[in-house]
Design goal:
The complex is a heterodimer.
Chain A: H1 2-5, H2 8-28, H3 38-61, H4 70-98, H5 100-107, H6 116-139, H7 143-167, H8 174-204
Helix pairs in contact in A: 2-3, 2-8, 3-4, 3-8, 4-5, 4-6, 6-7, 7-8
Chain B: H1 2-6, H2 8-21, H3 24-32, E1 68-76, E2 87-92, E3 105-109, E4 115-120, E5 132-136, E6 144-146, E7 157-164
Parallel strand pairs in B: 1-7
Antiparallel strand pairs in B: 1-4, 2-3, 2-5, 5-6
Classes of the chains: A mainly alpha, B alpha+beta.
Chain lengths: 206, 167
Amino acid sequence: MQDWRSARAPLIWVALAVAIGVPIAFAAASEQLAWRGPVYILAGFAGIIALGLVLVQPLLVGGYLPGLSAYRSRRAHHWIGGALVLAILIHVAGLWITSPPDMIDALTYASPTPFSPFGVTAMWAIFAVALLALLRRRLGLRLRTWRLIHIPLAIVIVAGSVAHCLLIEGTMETISKAALCAAVLAATIQVMVDLWRKRTLRGQSP
Amino acid sequence: MTMVVLNRRSLLSAGGSVLATGVLTAGVSGLLLPARADGLAPTESMSGGANNYRKGAAVVERIGKGGFWMSGTVRRAGDGAPLAGQRIQIWAHTVEGQEHEPQSHGATLTDKDGKFRLEMPQIIPIFGQPHGHLAYDSGEFKTVFLRPVMRSPKETSLEAHFVLQPA
């Protein structure tokens, strides 16, 4: 509760809301929307929201969001992981309905657009993490093993999503899009550094 | 004579093409393309080029209300001779409709110099790239599908060039 009284805590939440909200607002004001059908618009926004969720995930894991206990952060990380899968499914299904041949090209890595393979690779990494997270207890994966699987996949998800998004010419405004991508990268790098530090600290103590 | 020594291959091929076709433009393109001595290579279809193709779009004066120009050339593989009267089909996601919709499709014929030019509505980005689609699919030559990309969505014209080989 003390966190909430300091100015830092609300600022972090405001910064998060701005980082995700501003790109969505710019996209909602894009003139491109006038020439798109509702399904295509929905698919596009599902993609933008997915990128926003990719920003929230490392913030939760790193415990950088004030006012959330470690337990609640972890629970939220699970639920947002599920929401991410749903957003990707809406993104892909909506694009498939809009133009089936283009989506089939993308999914089979035969697309002429350079951003497609990054997006599709990130999609499979997201599905893999979600599936393994669901089966983690059943498979009896210990924390160390789980991290050994999840961290490389998380890097693939982040790098793939950022490259995918930056190379697309669509409804997103360039600067707000780049800022959101930079925030995703910064949050991910910070978590990785923190995890590495904790690991080395543990390694040093007898 | 020094010119011939320095660049004999391209000059010979250019001279040959001028003799063969009697068209100055072919001679110029011969100079620009040294590989022409081995024969002008046919254009390969681009990946994704045939997406949302509707066979048999009608030859039209203009697609929709216009405002954007699609242009290009059609030549024969090997000697690079311009091909007149060839039907080129054009479609794209524009301000007047999506790629698959019939009103987004049209065709035009090449003139005696193998050039074509068709006015169509402004192309806008679809699937992350502002691009157009063109097809040669009339049987006499091998079918080719092209998918040129605009450098910026603000551009109001786009070019695509065909080099066709016998079917």
